[in-house]
């Protein structure tokens, strides 16, 4: 069964010669959450803008729910809701009227019962008669989501949905997104908060310089590219890593009390048992050991830096 979004060899080159996207292909399944990561200028917003019909591509095709975004654009756009980065709301309009207006733009008939459900799910019902200028930044972002959901889209794009939102509100927004997924909405988000992608996404796509480096399930990505770090706390500080243990990539902390060892947890032999045995044979007493998995941020930085290194070569 085909995904709800099919992207084939999508490219975008601007008049000045800037190539924002280069032969991007991917398929997004119905009901999943996919996070698009990449540095500023990588092409994330351009990709979203093309799918939503805001930017015309110079090559390739995009289908949403089987509808080509260029030849069958009305049907494609009815399936899409977009929450942009910028907060652009009519300051003197009531929340409920703003949401009603957006529904009307998509040709939807009045349905206040549905709009009430949307506003309640976003904790906005009590603010329905407030002017949007009276709302906090977090509440304004919720209004943007309500407007994007007003016509019952099957696909929701969130472009930096929690930019400028404090930690507490960010976590509330994550709960909102999870609720939308349970309702069957497919969600594509871009974010600079890698913690956000790690928390919510089923799959991660990494874009750099207009190219899609990879798209993988989050757990698979973490397993394939993530490393584990073993920290060994010594009973007595060391002046240096023993010469007998040289060549293993061991890093001694400045105070001499901790040895760091990076290893691949998927390897047949991690070398941990041998390392601890060798320390004991050197007459060194270990007080404690702990392990830590690489974060998505570390994985992302590694991927982007590898891509830069290939270009330099």
UniProtKB/TrEMBL annotation:
Organism: Paracoccus stylophorae
Occurrences of domain ABC transporter (ranges): 5-234
InterPro entries with a match to the protein in the record: AAA+_ATPase, ABC_transporter-like_ATP-bd, ABC_transporter-like_CS, ABC_transporter_ATP-binding, P-loop_NTPase
Keywords assigned: ATP-binding, Nucleotide-binding, Transport
Tree of life domain: Bacteria
Coiled coil: none
Protein name (Swiss-Prot/TrEMBL): ABC transporter ATP-binding protein
Record keyword Nucleotide-binding present: yes
The keyword RNA-binding belongs to this UniProt entry's keyword annotation: no
Pfam families, alphabetized: ABC_tran (PF00005)
Family matches, as SMART domains: AAA (SM00382)
Molecular-function GO term, any one: ATP binding
């Amino acid at each position: 069964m085909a995904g709800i979004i099919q992207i084939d060899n999508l490219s975008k080159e601007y008049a000045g010669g800037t190539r924002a996207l280069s032969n991007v292909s991917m398929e997004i399944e119905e009901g999943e959450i996919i996070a698009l990561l990449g540095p500023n200028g990588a092409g994330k917003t351009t990709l979203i803008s093309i799918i939503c019909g805001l930017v015309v591509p110079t090559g390739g095709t995009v289908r949403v729910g089987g509808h080509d975004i260029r030849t069958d654009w009305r049907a494609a756009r009815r399936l899409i809701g977009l929450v942009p980065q910028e907060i652009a709301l009519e300051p003197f309009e009531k929340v409920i009227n703003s949401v009603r207006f957006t529904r009307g733009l998509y040709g939807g008939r009045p349905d206040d019962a549905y709009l009430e459900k949307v506003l309640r799910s976003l904790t906005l019902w009590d603010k329905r008669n407030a002017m949007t200028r009276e709302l906090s930044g977090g509440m304004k972002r919720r209004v943007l989501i309500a407007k994007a959901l007003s016509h019952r889209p099957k696909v929701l794009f969130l472009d930096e949905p929690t930019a400028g939102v404090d930690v507490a509100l960010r976590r509330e927004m994550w709960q909102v997104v999870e609720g939308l997924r349970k309702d069957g909405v497919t969600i594509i988000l871009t974010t600079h908060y890698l913690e956000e992608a790690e928390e919510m996404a089923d799959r991660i796509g990494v874009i750099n310089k207009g190219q899609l480096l990879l798209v993988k399930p989050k757990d698979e990505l973490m397993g394939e590219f993530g490393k584990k770090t073993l920290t060994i706390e010594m009973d007595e500080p060391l002046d240096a890593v023993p010469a007998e243990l040289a060549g293993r990539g061991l890093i001694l902390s400045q105070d001499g009390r901790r040895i760091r060892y990076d290893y691949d947890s998927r390897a047949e032999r991690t070398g941990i048992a041998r390392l601890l045995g060798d320390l004991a044979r050197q007459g060194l007493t270990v007080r404690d050991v702990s392990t830590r998995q690489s974060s998505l941020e570390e994985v992302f930085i590694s991927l982007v830096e590898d891509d830069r290194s290939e270009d330099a070569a």
